[in-house]
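User: My instructor asked us to take a sequence, write out its structure as tokens, and then describe one feature of it. I'm not sure where to start. Here is the sequence I was given:
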Amino acid sequence: MEPRREFELPPDDQAFLNEYGLPWEAILDGSPWVLIHEFPTHGGYVQSHVTAAIRIESGYPPAPLDMVYFHPAIRRKDGRRIGATQSTQAIDGKSFQRWSRHRTAKHPWQPSTDNLGTHILLVEEWLAREFES
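Assistant: Let's start with the prediction itself. The structure tokens for your sequence are:
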């Protein structure tokens, strides 16, 4: 099945996603979304791979990207609750778990350097950080 490209991303974002090496789609479902399939999680999660969804905010790239959504919902192997993940979002006919994670005043979005690629790397960090004590 051919991946959907229902809207065009900036060339740098397309290049990053192609180099990242996972199947991805750009869909319109109320908002523009990038779906990254077979996204690897940290070894401490029940699910080893999920689909990660990132909403492309109005005004992006100067406007920041925020949060990430996963399908299926991610659970820890040790059964511990993952904070700020109780909300869901319907995307592409599926229920995605919202990870309410945000940049901070100390590490704000910087339009000159931040983009979809840096946001995806931050998502990887959020997944790993869940296991830091």
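For the description part of your assignment, you could build on this observation: The first helix runs from residue 11 to 20. Try explaining in your own words what that tells you about the chain.
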